[in-house]
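Dear colleague,

Thank you for sharing your sequence with our group. We've completed the structure prediction you requested, and as agreed, I am returning the results in plain text so they can be pasted directly into your records. Please verify that the sequence below matches your submission; if there's any discrepancy, let me know and we will rerun it promptly.
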Amino acid sequence: MALDPQLLEILACPLDKGPLHYLADENLLYNPRLRRWYEVNDDIPVMLVDEAVEVDEAEHTRLMARITSEGIAPTFEV
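Please find the predicted structure tokens below.
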């Protein structure tokens, strides 16, 4: 099961309040501006700053390549 589309429309990074990219098969919401991702456990986003995972350059590049190639839209437009 995936996150509710209505929930996705309002999800924002708790740190910079910007949009996220939802990678459903990896169970994460990614913030490319801060290079952090938030886990999604049992279809519940864990939006705690202290629980976010910072990614290195290689992981950022991999995630951005997926987002670009698969056309994964942000949760909302700025």
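Summary note from our side: The chain has one domain: 5-70.

Kind regards,
the structure core
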